[in-house]
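Residues pack. One example:


***
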Amino acid sequence: MMTPEQIERRVRELAPWFHDLDLNGIRTAPNHFLGSYPLGLWEAIKHIVPADLRGKTVLDVGCNAGFFSIELSRRGAARVLAVDYDERYLEQARLAVEVAGAENIELRKLSVYDVGQLGERFDFVVFMGVFYHLRHPLLALDLVREHVVNDLLLFESMCRGSTRAKRYAEDYPFEELDIFEEPAYPKMHFIEQKYAADQTNWWAPNVSCMEAMLRSSGFELLQHPIPEVWLCRAAGKPGGEGAVYPARGVRR
């Protein structure tokens, strides 16, 4: 067991934190601009997550400091694999997992674009707070669906624009232009520079766009408890050609 002094020292060494965790009384981000994040988010959505995950496998894509991995391990998951591409986040998660005593959590450095390397599917996949940080978000969503989701997906994305979810007709004539002006038509806002002082914020879909993209990737939308979170089930194949795998050029 680490002493409070040891925990506090490691928290300072690994700052700044995006997850405000309570590590045996030591807060990692007590002045978070979103308040007690992600605890507040978890309180709003935890009722849609299976209460008993015994015998189930969990994958946390973009685990950050490990908040959701730890919460799902507490629900009895047989195994939780938490992946992130940022080594500092993984170091934060290692500390959080150690303090929590969550022996069923494995941490691994991995890009979302490389989830096919895992070679296994998981009963419950968490894909929270990652989508809008990706330059190629639909590709990532397709890859997650194709390679790692066996059943349920807990998904979250920052959304901007209309919060109205509306499904449109399958096809329209070329001359139809008015629908593109409707606020609820699926739209993805591209962020060329920064948003909220963060240069990794690339995209901000509206709610209709996010739901359309989830459906297009082969997910059935089960629950939508708050504007930016969905519980989905793998229920079909991606539309069109599915995930695209770009050829790798030879360096000269």
Observations:
- The CA atoms of residues 41 and 99 lie 22 Å apart.
- The chain is about 25% helix and 20% strand.
- The helical segments are 4-13, 39-45, 67-73, 87-100, 137-147, 207-216.
